[in-house]
Amino acid sequence: MDTRVFAYVAKLADTGSYARAARELFITKQGLASAIERLERSLNVPLFEADHKGVRLTEYGEVFCAFSHAFLDRQKAMNEEIEALRRREERSVTLAASTGLFNVITREDICAFDEENAFGASVEILRAVLDGDCEAMLLDKACDFALLNDPIQNEHVASVPLHRDSMFFWVAAEHALARRKTARLADAAGCEVACLSPDEYVSLAPVVERLRAEAPDCRVFYADQMIEVLERALERRALAITVRSHVGSFPHEGFVGVPIEDASWGFSVAYRRDRSLSPWDEAFLAHLSSLAVFCQ
To answer: Which helix (H) or strand (E) holds 247?
Structure first.
């Protein structure tokens, strides 16, 4: 039996549509239909039946689909174990990172691990993604370690802090706050405030919650990228909530950064609690800890 049919049956059952299932499986609709027909002939029972909504599993199909999911889960686990073993034999460590964190600890400093460790191990840095996606990669074992914004609240993840700092109001030089050494979230009362979306950047969630409580009459604009936050501040002379590495952006526009006493952020290196750390894993964590930056 062609093991691909397990994925075919599971996807067709999930979508209820040959056309949609074929698209998601990256095969043709006719190819999918032919594979299902061959499978039904080999089993001598119908697995699907059509109704006005599309296709649905028969009782025979329910049994086959349950075994299909079990097979796919085991196949995924097998592939993960084989990949983990391959990486261990090669002494390779993979690291994913939430967007923007390489502004604090650079890729070059992280990759210096390749030359400095005594095990001949190397680090592969994956592309930066949003917090939720980065954590999902870690939990799915698509990476060994991940740089994640704090707070990290998943019970299946262990973490080592690497950075802690104040957030900043980025304000026009003529604004009253620009003359202050520090500010508080309550100082945003009556102002327009631009910041990253707390739904995608976990560090902003508690800050925005406190901002709403301390300055309920402020108007908050959310953006998906920091450049949009800063541009909004420039265009509307609004307050932007940002971090130290962005305070120097647009240096000729007359904006300054003011630390916010009651708004902090940081990030940590995280790994699955069920991961058995190798000696080079331990060395990698020690290397990252040596790069830690704590400004508070």
So the answer is: helix 244-247
260's tokens = 């916010």
CATH 3.40.50.2000 fits 4-70, yes or no: no
The position carrying tokens 């993840």 is 157
Token pair of 9, please?
């049956």
Rounded distance, CA 160 to CA 294, Å?
Answer: 13
**What's the pTM value of the predicted model, to 2 decimals?**
0.70
Query: Would you call 236 helix, strand, or coil by DSSP?
Result: helix
Closest CA to 36 of 14, 72, 4: 4
**164-265 fold:** D-Maltodextrin-Binding Protein; domain 2 (3.40.190)
Select from 252, 201, 256, 245 the least CA-distant residue to 223: 201
* Residue 186: both structure tokens together: 């309550």
Topology (CATH) of 88-163+267-294: D-Maltodextrin-Binding Protein; domain 2 (3.40.190)
Q: How far apart are CA 241 and CA 168, in angstroms?
A: 6
pLDDT tens, N- to C-terminus, the chain (296 residues): 788 999 999 999 999 999 999 999 989 999 999 999 999 999 999 999 988 888 999 999 999 999 999 999 998 888 877 877 776 776 889 999 988 899 899 999 999 999 999 999 999 998 778 888 889 999 988 899 999 999 898 999 999 999 999 999 999 999 999 999 999 999 999 999 999 998 878 889 999 999 999 999 999 999 988 899 999 999 999 999 999 988 887 777 789 999 999 999 999 999 999 988 989 999 999 999 999 999 86
